[in-house]
Amino acid sequence: MFWLFYFLVSIGVVSLLFCMFLVGPLYVLEKFFPRLSGSSERAVQVGVRVLLNLQPWYRADVQIRLPEKNGGLLLVSNHRSHLDAVILLSRVPGIRILAKKSLFAIPVLSWMMRATRQIGVERGRLEAWAQAMETVRRQLLLGETVHIFPEMTRCAPGYHGLQHFTLAPFLVAVQEDVPVVPVVFRNTDAAWPKGLARLRFRRPVEARTLAPIRGGRFATAEDLKNEVFRQLSEAMA
Questions:
Q1: Model's pTM, two decimal places?
Q2: Whole-angstrom Cα distance, residue 72 to residue 145?
Q3: What residue spans of the chain are helical by DSSP H?
Q4: What phi and psi values does residue 100 have, to the nearest 5 degrees?
Q5: Domain 59-236 has CATH 1.20.1050.10
Q6: Which of 108, 126, 151, 187 could be disulfide-bonded to 163 (CB atoms 3.0-4.6 Å)?
């Protein structure tokens, strides 16, 4: 419980300082100087990385390397912990993560998610899910980097392997012919398990990217989904 409290407090402190002295001023300057476009989002990435570096409980080997961008990029990964999204925010500037809308109601976290323009979706409503997928499509066509957890929920603590993948993001990738980059998370649930309001001290976690897969190479979204599932399963073995 202590380390979770420390983490939440440090989120508030780091967010306030970076917002007041770096992210906020850069956001305003971007309106007048187009060459600075994206600098505020890079500052957010730096802020989240600083936040993680301030965590004595956190121990990670992160190897997230993305291909040179020539348009939109879709990242997909397994989902073991809330820590997965924090790691992505610390390493990928301008990333848009599809997340359940209830997270936008949590103090401090809500500010971070709105400031970085994350994509909210209301769970259990088919219409809301369809709208979210259209938002994902638009963001990709605008050349942005979007991340989706196709398992749709965190796995239970100690769960082995992958849960069922939803088809929708792979359909977008095939239709728009965007590169899909699989991301593997290992042991993040050992550090921050689902259903437990505490963090575990110095549990080693890993995150790494696999080679990009071009969506347009596949005849169907099902084929692409199965290939990504296979590669992630092998990387987790």
A1: 0.92
A2: 6
A3: 2-18, 24-32, 39-53, 83-91, 109-115, 126-141, 168-176, 188-191, 221-236
A4: -65, 140
A5: no
A6: 151
